[in-house]
Amino acid sequence: MASLRALLTTSMALPAAAFWRMSCGIIQTGRLDPNISPGAVSAHVHKVSGASNFGLSSTYDDLIASRCTSCEIQDDKSAYWTPQMYYQRADGSVEEVPNGGTVVYYLGRGENRENIEPFPPGFRMVSGDPFLRSNDTASVTYSDGKFLSRPVSDRVSFACLDSSGHIPEVNYMARTECDQGLRAQIQFQSCWDGRDYQLDQSHVAYLSGIDNGVCPPTHPRQLPHLFFEVYYGVADVEKEPGGRFVFAQGDPTGFGFHGDFMNGWDPDVLKEAVDLCINDDSFNGQISYCPPLAKSQTPFYATNCPERQPIVNEQVKGTVECIPGCNVVSDGPARAARLFCPDDTPSINRAADEGPLAMFEPAPGDKLGGSSVFVGCVADNGNPRPLTGASFTADNMTIEICVAFCEDKGYALAGLEYSRECYCGDSIGSATAGDCSTTSKMICAGDNTQWCGAPSLLTVWGRAVGKRNYTEEQ
Ligand SMILES: *[C@@H]1O[C@H](CO)[C@@H](O)[C@H](O)[C@H]1NC(C)=O
Ligand SMILES: *[C@@H]1O[C@H](CO)[C@@H](O)[C@H](O)[C@H]1NC(C)=O
Ligand SMILES: *[C@@H]1O[C@H](CO)[C@@H](O)[C@H](O)[C@H]1NC(C)=O
After folding, report:
1. Residues 313, 374: one domain?
2. pLDDT tens sequence across 158-207
3. I need a labelling partner for 79 at 20 to 30 A (CA). Which of 182, 240, 389, 407 fits?
4. What superkingdom does the record give (predicted)?
5. Is 465 in the pocket of ligand 3 (CB under 6 A)?
6. If we measure between CA atoms, which residue out of 448, 450, 438 comes closest to residue 414?
7. Which ligand sits nearest to residue 138's alpha carbon?
8. Distance (Å, whole) CA 87 – CA 245
9. Ligand 2 near 348 CB (within 6 A)
10. pLDDT above 90 for 431
11. Is the pTM of this model over 0.85?
12. Contact partners, residue 472, CB within 8 Å, separation at least 6
């Protein structure tokens, strides 16, 4: 552990290393934006990370009513979203650029960082301007004379990751030939005036240096400094002459990149994490070193909280004829015009999320359907496997399917592993108990309200009735 920490310390490029860093998978893709167009189909396609109950008109109550989040920290039911990136072909059709999700940073920044307050429940903000198509040199941050201002357009940056060597980051999409991908980055406003959400974002302001410095006196309350990194697989797209990368708002420049946040944290957890961890330079972003965050951290966030069915029924993935929502590509330098689609009425899929108490959480001895009883969690290092009988793998694996399979083969025990594997046996032999906490398990591939073990972990069910009942003695 100590050497790992040392390694991470030396690889850190940031000067003040007080922050936590959270990886997130995708939870929803589509024209949704409850910050800008609540209740309506939004102007362009977003990729959303976070709370599973995210929808067209999400509020704090909706977010915290989620079954899960596609981010690592399960006590954070916030939503984080950015525009989708497409590759536009010479014929005008567009293809979704692969994107694995978002990395969200909560940083302790600014001269007043000792007084950072947690985001209030439901707090919302947008950083960036989707209509921008050139370098805005006019808008600058606050300066008090001592701490200098900075162009606000520096809130956006792009890192072209290329094997040829380090390419300096710039505030627009200067290069897209990046053999290891392109990383779009956005910094948020860290200063607040205490008012409710304002559509024009006047409730928040940037720090003088955007990621350091001071808050303007009009917005004295300091919030955690939020920063997103979004990776795009620009090297994984088949390019052609006349093709180019564009963001979903019709932006081929990147100047119009933007990010959205809606706070869905458990307020006690966020407060404790801000108090204990956001200014702690020692743990270098690692959630596992911050106890209030570590307690709901799961490595299986993407599997356990997969992307949900689209809420807006229109094709936005794969190859589509044109950018969804009448978004005409505009090169700038003038601001893009706001376009309205006259017949823009895709239907809405209102399929509800399963909700916060949907998980079946059996304790040892609890029964499922009367015929099987939960034995517990057993470590499986694979050498030898604890359950040595028949086994199979299925993409629709559930506890019932595995139990029925083992019962049919005459075994007393059925063990589930890695979301989709089933192992049978009559005894667990000398295997040791495994970590049975919620955050250490994976959902069943065929039922997202059941747990089906994890890598190297079996959740074991025994027969409560039948010829060869499972008993504690076995
Ligand atoms: C944008 O303008 C700022 C301020 O004038 C300047 O420092 C920066 O280099 C410009 N960026 C680009 C990409 O031209
Ligand atoms: C699970 O999938 C298999 C293979 O596709 C199929 O034969 C079986 O009927 C499915 N079982 C259930 C319970 O859906
Ligand atoms: C298994 O359990 C059932 C119900 O508890 C009982 O009726 C049956 O006799 C048991 N069988 C054995 C072999 O112990």
Report:
1. no
2. 999 999 999 999 999 999 999 999 999 999 999 999 999 999 999 999 99
3. 182
4. Eukaryota
5. yes
6. 450
7. 1
8. 4
9. no
10. no
11. yes
12. none
